[in-house]
Write a structure and sequence with these properties.
The protein is an alpha/beta fold. It is built from six helices and six strands, in the order H-H-E-E-E-H-E-H-E-H-E-H. It has helices at about 1-10, 20-30, 75-85, 105-120, 130-135, 150-155; strands at about 45, 55-60, 70-75, 90-95, 125, 145-150. The strands form two sheets. Strands 2-1-3 form a three-stranded antiparallel β-sheet.
Length: about 170
């Protein structure tokens, strides 16, 4: 999604996206993407355009050509992320993983949403209007523990560095 595209771009990997603002790029520069708790895509679906009739190929994020853009995560990333999600106890998801509105690039977002919905042991927090729209499209909105259309607002109001996360609904197992 947009966040990963910005991280990759600032870290020197061409993904065909414009450079983020100085504030954002400064924050990304300080980010250690080798941290084992940060999971980046290992492959992606890329194309020069998001229209039908133009080629789509699967490649590593570092192999995106100048005339291409990333439009979805690839099958290896879906498998890797799904495995991580299957054992997670808490899941915070803000933002689709690809251009889910286009059926050619909807698979990553749909399969990750299905993985989250399948983990009945996790408390899932999903935010952002685009994410909610994707969950509605895939008929998975009701499978999440907590949803909010305020993606950016959720990130700002949720104190992830403390033991208190303000939520309007707690898991039924609590």
């Amino acid at each position: 999604g947009k966040i990963v595209n910005m991280i990759l771009r600032v870290k020197g990997i061409n993904v065909g996206k414009p450079w983020p603002s100085k504030y954002v790029s400064d924050k990304i520069e300080a980010l250690d993407i080798t941290n084992s708790k940060i999971h980046m895509p290992v492959d992606a679906l890329v194309s020069p355009e998001c229209d039908i009739g133009v080629y789509i190929r699967t490649t590593g994020p570092g192999s995106v050509r100048k005339d291409e853009s990333l439009f979805d995560i690839g099958p290896e990333t879906i498998e890797s992320f799904s495995k991580i999600i299957s054992s997670a106890k808490t899941i915070l998801w803000v933002g689709p993983l690809g251009l889910y509105e286009n059926r050619l690039f909807a698979s990553g977002t749909k399969k990750i949403a299905e993985a989250i919905a399948s983990n009945h042991n996790a408390f899932s927090v999903v935010g952002g209007g685009d994410t909610i729209a994707a969950l509605n499209k895939f008929d998975l909105l009701g499978k999440m523990c907590h949803t909010s259309t305020g993606g950016g607002a959720d990130r700002k109001s949720t104190r992830l560095n403390s033991s208190h996360i303000p939520l309007s609904r707690m898991p039924s197992s609590a």
